[in-house]
Amino acid sequence: MIVDRVEPRENYLNADYGIKSWLLTTDHKRIALLYLVSVTLFFFVGGVFAVLIRLELLTPQGDLVQAETYNKLFTMHGVTMIFFFLIPAIPAVLGNFLVPLMIGARDLAFPRLNLASWYFFILGGLIAIWAILAGGVDTGWTFYTPYSSSYSTTYVAVTILGIFLSGFSSIFTGLNFIVTIHRMRAPGLTWFRLPLFIWSLYATSVIIVLGTPVVAITLLLVAVERILRVGIFDPALGGDPLLFQHLFWFYSHPAVYIMVLPAMGVISELVATFSRKNIFGYRFVAFASVAIAVLGFLVWAHHMFVAGLSVYGAMIFSFLSYFVAVPSAIKVFNWTATLYKGSISYQTPMLYAFGFIGLFTIGGVTGLFLASLGIDVHVTDTYFVVAHFHYIMVGGTIMAYLGGLHYWWPKISGRMYPEGWAKLGALVIFIGFNLTFFPQFVLGYLGMPRRYYAYPDEFQVLNVMSSAGASILGVGYLLPMIYLIWSMRYGPRASSNPWPATGLEWRTPSPPPTENFKETPVVTWEPYEFRPREEMEVIGKLNINDESG
Amino acid sequence: MAKSHSTVLAHHFDSIEQQREASSLGMWIFLVTEIMFFGGLFTGYVVYRTIYPGVFAEGSHHLDITLGGINTVVLITSSLTMALAVRSAQMSNRKSLVIFLILTILLGLTFLGIKLVEYGHKFRDHLVPGFGFSYPGPEAGHVELFFVFYFFMTGLHALHMVAGVGVLTILLILAGRGLFSAEYYTPVELAGLYWHFVDIIWIFLFPLLYLIGLHLKGS
Prior knowledge:
The structure holds 2 protein chains of 2 kinds. By secondary structure, chain A is mostly helical. In chain A, 68% of the residues lie in helices and 0% in strands. Chain A is built from 17 helices and no strands. In chain A, helix 3 (28-56) packs antiparallel against helix 4 (67-103), helix 4 packs parallel to helix 14 (383-413) and helix 10 (282-295) runs antiparallel to helix 11. The longest helix of chain A is centred in the first third of the chain and has 37 residues, at 67-103. The radius of gyration of chain A is 23 Å and the shape is globular. The two termini of chain A are 13 Å apart. By secondary structure, chain B is mainly alpha-helical. Residues 1-5 of chain B have low confidence and may be disordered. Classes of the chains: A mainly alpha, B mainly alpha. The A-B interface holds A 105-111, 171, 175-176, 178-180, 182-184, 209-214, 216-218, 221, 224, 227-232, 237-240, 243, 247, 515, 520 and B 10-14, 18, 21-22, 25-26, 29-30, 32-34, 36-41, 43-44, 47-48, 51-52, 129-131, 133, 141-142, 144-145, 148, 152.
């Protein structure tokens, strides 16, 4: 068989064996896999808390857990999901794996720093888990002062230390990406020939580099206030709690874009490949990423409309918040325009891309509701907000993450996943997600506050729907985990370019060798230049699948 | 590729030039994150100084302008010796590189020593927040806030100095072995950038913390 003749060759997976070869690796592809395993673990830790929350909310009374326990549950759910899954997921797993491959480099600019970033991530994560086991933390993931700095008796400082350390992991990764994208592109790969995923990661890295240090110092100040009992944010001691919110949201609102920009990048790749067209308005989509990164830093105070912001301040931030919707909308319109008259194939990654566009649009439009002052005052701190950010962050990020994972799985593992099961998984997740979170928009609009462990009887029907959806969603998340692990051993072998797509990452064998490319590729074509495949095969006798041989 | 290059060129770079550019860009981005890191503190400082201008001036009176001034001179001199060290590396002058690195390290240690003396004075005067802070007067809580910022900002700065001295010591050992030359001096150059950055932070800290009183008296 032809395939077998090609197969027994060295790649990054079999280049070296043993635990040590993994834990001390500086290969960006192996580090990506280390991240893949660790963020998956954190995802399931955060998922367990979500299950407990939805179980408690099945009935109006607080019968499963006490109020204090419930506070800890939603805090730890938020902390693990945001800091240890959503923020690192796409950049650290897919980004680490793909940035050098997509730009034709042999590795990231600083391979040892890359490994160090994983260790910081793991150390931070273990400290956070230790805080959970020791008794948890009950402040909410936002750590609002003065409750977090003066009054809470839970493990606030320990959790903060964990987040602080994982922040270094983000900064190192962002720094590495920026330098790599600037300095290590293959000959001929100009800025406007870069894949849109690279553009989005570049914009994301800029946000990470500028924002993360601010939240790090802010959380450090909270820890100092707790440990030394001095009044930095506690008004009783002369501090200013609003200052905390300003500093915190200066990072934490852009953090939403840290989660969703890479997701948008993935979607651009999927939409182009599975409709076999260049992305409509390539430059607009690229610049929209940068615009989101810039505007994202100007809207933080829309989290503080009811926190004591001046009327004029609130109006300005409301206006700016509308503005940031423009580049997001540009992307959605351009994907839609790309799909128009495209030759669309409905494979699993594309199903996830459709899911992303749908959920992101709902999440984005409800974001406009929240940006408008009057409506925001009505729905602040209700389930409307909960539903909104889950649509953006969970619907958006996880859909793209799973879509990307399926799309690049052949490259990562060298094996194909089972298409039927994967389509089923995508469908179950989409249905489960909407059933879980759509009722929460209604709940919130009707006035059910967030972060309460009990609620009036009239909200029960919608809550039961939401909890039922959560169980479907849980099954949906388990499915890919099972069949992807299965496919690593039993899946059919993948060719170097199974889709067939245009990026550089597909011009090297699956899985790639340690050095990524045998020779540094020279790029002479435009991004997403989908020539008919037959043409390539006839003219140059170029069978893309054979390049590995 | 020349043999002398292959020892310092990492496998994933095509040329020593590419490697140098990447390292240099990486350092600049790292310094940007440092600016944002200190920027959060500076923002906090500005907010509270605006809310409590009188109290901050009062707290400032308890800082030792003489020691702070000497330290400023020490630090600026160390920036000079560091710059000369980088130049020595560029000129392949191993001996003067070693000398200037030693001088820079010594000046850095002098700075830290003086800082330690100052901290000692504050301990004696019960002006360290969280460690038996006591201050006579109605605004004790807000004066304490001033000292929170004083210790946090200067402490973080001192921590950066300690790291810098550590880095320079490693460079000193490598320089003694003759690793650096006109062809390869990136680590010295980057350590220089870092050292100058830490100095600049101090150039902001000194007037913000020590000289408020003078400023208010003048107006």
